[in-house]
Amino acid sequence: MRTYRKELWFDIPTRREFRNITPQVKACLDESGVREGLLLCNAMHITASVFINDDEHGLHNDFERWLEGLAPHEPLSHYQHNNTGEDNGDAHLKRTVMGREVVVAVTNGQLDFGPWEQIFYGEFDGRRRKRVLVKIIGE
Amino acid sequence: MRTYRKELWFDIPTRREFRNITPQVKACLDESGVREGLLLCNAMHITASVFINDDEHGLHNDFERWLEGLAPHEPLSHYQHNNTGEDNGDAHLKRTVMGREVVVAVTNGQLDFGPWEQIFYGEFDGRRRKRVLVKIIGE
Amino acid sequence: MRTYRKELWFDIPTRREFRNITPQVKACLDESGVREGLLLCNAMHITASVFINDDEHGLHNDFERWLEGLAPHEPLSHYQHNNTGEDNGDAHLKRTVMGREVVVAVTNGQLDFGPWEQIFYGEFDGRRRKRVLVKIIGE
Fold first, then answer.
1. Does ipTM come in above 0.90?
2. Minimal CB count within 10 Å: which of A36, A58, A69, C106?
3. Mean pLDDT, to the nearest integer, of A57-61?
4. Cα separation of B101 and B94, whole Å?
5. Among A62, A98, A137, whose Cβ lies nearest the Cβ of B81?
6. Cβ-Cβ contacts under 8 Å, B99 against chain C
């Protein structure tokens, strides 16, 4: 069995952003040499997501507005978590909706994707360096 | 290590439906010959889900009404994504709530499930042929 | 390839609770002897979750209030599922938001976690014995 591990680092300059990380994940898969197996890609922080959806700007705006409706950033006092001195109570909830991780099939050395599947890093509390983990097992 | 891959195709005649695909996934597992390992089952389209819950008709109606409340199909103009000519902005959001994928333990050649666990395909933008991927690794 | 399976049992005395199960999952990993691979941890019941977030009491209260807003327990008649004689229609929906499972990378014999990641069992219909599955594959 072959295993591979890499951390991808991001420093998003705004509080929230969706960034297509498919090229970086593909580069990991190429580097791993795995031809058949499973690839796990997860946020290592609890106010960020990794998810799969479409790379379409209007859709990302829809996600942003929808998440802000489901778990508004303000008023900060709405979240008990913010009593700890944080201001990211909403970010924990938004990340929960979007998900922590994706598991992707590796087939013939490729990410085994449908036509529109792309992997995104979803940042909900940015303006600092944060990490995504890529772990691949297979042969 | 043994690996297995299969696409399951669906052509749901309505916009939305939940379909129990446990029998097809079990058939994949039987065909794979894997006795111990992990099984990934994911939608290959970004307006559909694969999830695990109960096969109970009333619950599925509850899911349908709840998702329509969280991300209504209309008005279409509510979603920037629909400016691309699509009418499925809501479907991307509904699929996000229900999830893209499930990972299931394979033990002794069986799906290692609790008493009520069943795998569903969740269609949110049907009336065309769409795919689910089953990937199994193990031995 | 090495594989490992264990059931963790819980009997939560209230309807809802979040419990940090990271120590039990770590003990499974130690027992497995797996050094490199993937660990799946999933609820075996469809009214419970396994998820990763922060072990902070205020945040858990925020999750509780937020989920109750998204899918209120009462009125029971709000859910068709409750016509079956159950009173847990809301629990199926709450578990869907929080997720059924997590997949965690195993690296050098450890759960490969970021600084704040902890694994929780999310109970939404307690007061009875229920199970979580831990399955590990690797080498």
1. yes
2. A69
3. 98
4. 14
5. A62
6. 96, 99-100
